Amino acid sequence: MDLSLSTRTVGDRTVVEVGGEIDVYTAPKLREQLVELVNDGSYHLVVDMEGVDFLDSTGLGVLVGGLKRVRAHEGSLRLVCNQERILKIFRITGLTKVFPIHTSVDEAVAATD
Amino acid sequence: MHARKTEGEAVMATVELRFSALPEHVRTARLVAAAVARRAGVDEAVLDEVRLAVGEACTRAVGLHRANGANLPVRVLLTEEEKKFSIEVGEEAPGATGDRPGVPAARADDEARAHPGSSAPDSGEDEGQMGLAVISGLVDDVEVIEGPGGGVIRMSWPTNPAVALP
């Protein structure tokens, strides 16, 4: 399965809906998407990972890279994820402390802290 | 279909996979490893871990091959043993010990650790480290061997569902 990406704007947030597998082969596409959004001035991103079947450390690296880029513009990068097998990867790498992880896009879009 | 071992003979892998060191083949290795692990009796709840761990090991091997300009395949041995299922991912990258021109993998890793802010967070070196962190966090029985002919990551999982906790 390949990676699918779609973006939409909700208020001042840009929601990136990701589907499929994020690994060493597909992660560059996600990186390009995040870089493009930041270059175009979207600094408040919500990455919806509900459709993600697989995530590895390459994908984590891309998300951390995205976070670094939006923070350079005082922006934010929030994740939406309820899948235990994906959340587990964030936990074992300690990244649950780095990313705000929400249970729904609505919650992520409304979050302001 | 258990691996058989006779006197003085190494255990033959149940399935052996070699692929050219390209990112697009890592998924194939994950799928094959998960299929063989399932057949070997690894608990369903643990298959996700097997898939992720073998993917991380292969990703690291592909990265090392590319960093060293090595034109060698990545080798994955999947072995069904009596009470465990083991996976060995061999890098076979001659440059890993620094006997080839270019930046040796070990030194690149050291530099990434010494100057964490100097490289992008999504650079290859950091990913290699994060990959190892994921493997160590996931797998209880794991061994990373750095040898003269490249490195090997060995991992194993119990095949008795009674002890394979989710």
Automatic annotation (TrEMBL), chain A:
It holds the Pfam family STAS. Keywords: Phosphoprotein. Gene3D superfamilies: STAS domain (3.30.750.24). The keyword Phosphoprotein applies. It comes from the Bacteria. InterPro entries: Anti-sigma_ant, STAS_dom, STAS_dom_sf. The keyword Phosphoprotein applies. PROSITE patterns: STAS. GO terms for molecular function: anti-sigma factor antagonist activity. Residues 3-112 form the STAS domain. Positive regulator of sigma-B activity. Non-phosphorylated RsbV binds to RsbW, preventing its association with sigma-B. When phosphorylated, releases RsbW, which is then free to complex with and inactivate sigma-B. Belongs to the anti-sigma-factor antagonist family. This is Anti-sigma factor antagonist.
